[in-house]
Amino acid sequence: MQHFKTLSAYLEYLELPRPEHPMLSVFSATGEGFLPCPKESSPPITNDCYTISFQKIVKGDLNYGRTKYDFTNGALFFIAPRQVLQWDNRVVFEQKGFSINFHEDFIKGTELAHQIKKCGFFSYSVNEALHLSPREEKQIEAIVENIDLEYQNNQDEFSKEIIISQLSTLLKYANRFYERQFINRKALSNDLLEQFNLELEKYFDSGQLQEKGIPSIEHIAEILSVSQRYLSDTLKKETGKTSTEHLQLYLIDEAKNILLDPNKTVAEVAYYLGFEYPPYFSRLFKKREGISPTEFREKYKMN
Predict the structure, then answer these.
(1) Total structural domains within the chain
(2) Do β-strands 42-47 and 2-4 pair in parallel, antiparallel, or remain unpaired?
(3) What is the four-CA torsion angle of 219, 222, 223, 227, rounded to 10 degrees?
(4) pLDDT of 241-298, one tens digit each?
(5) pTM of the model as a whole
(6) Neighbours of 302 (CB within 10 A)
(7) Residues 149 and 25 in one domain
């Protein structure tokens, strides 16, 4: 898989103009301009840059990670360094929009470097992109215009600080709009929780728990065709608990039933549930239930 360490090399591969700054590029068509056409097709590639882009795909699919997305309505999406990107010549873009690319070193040593690590949507797949209302789109466009203006001007000692400040503002708005999107997709969130529990039930019933151990959240997310981070964020917004917490609750619930069997030791229950180390199971159980597995068994033992 081809990897690009510099922004210039990445843009050259995309057949786009060289950037005005060695670590930052801004292509904006929020006014009457148009975005440059992307390279017609590409096998899987990676780079060391962040991308924030608002584009509308008229035809075709863009592969990002393991998923595809139809951009008929247009969406804002985010790509983090070393994420896998791929597309083919069936993709046709509507050329209005914007694309901001910056090397990860551009923000090193700044508050934005810490802020961006907390933005879960950089780990989302393309089918979890942010859909903007017309009003939200105007708000984002205004920020991008400010970034583009500073980018096109003769850059001085204040330029980087101003651009980073505007990027920080853009990400704060993205966080707000994602919160709105989660709320508006409440029915989808409920369905995702049901599917999550259903997949856990299938995994347990199939005997894979004893064969492969506790399933990873990444494995379940892949089956549900969502990214691991999006699954956790969606469940957290809807239920107040992350995907890991839901998995732990499922395991503890199963453990309660098995612990009532006096013929099984606590260690045997732990191994049966896929835990390699019984002490970890006991700590998790006590953390969730307030009492140890042994105390639970004594409290609810069958006569």
Answers:
(1) 2
(2) parallel
(3) 120
(4) 889 999 999 999 989 988 988 888 999 999 988 888 899 999 999 999 999 999 998 8
(5) 0.70
(6) 7
(7) yes
